[in-house]
Amino acid sequence: MSQGRLLSAVRASGELHLGNYLGTMRQWVAVQAEKDCFYFIADLHGLTHLNAEYSPAAFAEARLRTVAAYLAAGLDPARVTLFLQSAVPQHLELMWYLSTVATKGELERVVREEKKLALDAAGASASLFYSPVLMASDIILYEAEEVPVGDDQREQVEIACDWAKRFNSRFDTEFAIPRALVPATAARIMDLQRPSSKMSKSGGTQGTLFISDTPDQLYAKIRRAVTDRGRHIIKSREKPGISNLIEIYSAITELTATEIQDEFLGRSYSDLKEALAEVVVSTLGPIREKMLEYLSDPSLLAEILRSGAQKAQEIAEGTTSQARVALGIRPVFR
Ligand code: TRP
Question: Among residues of the chain, what percentage have pLDDT more than 70?
Answer without folding.
Answer: 99
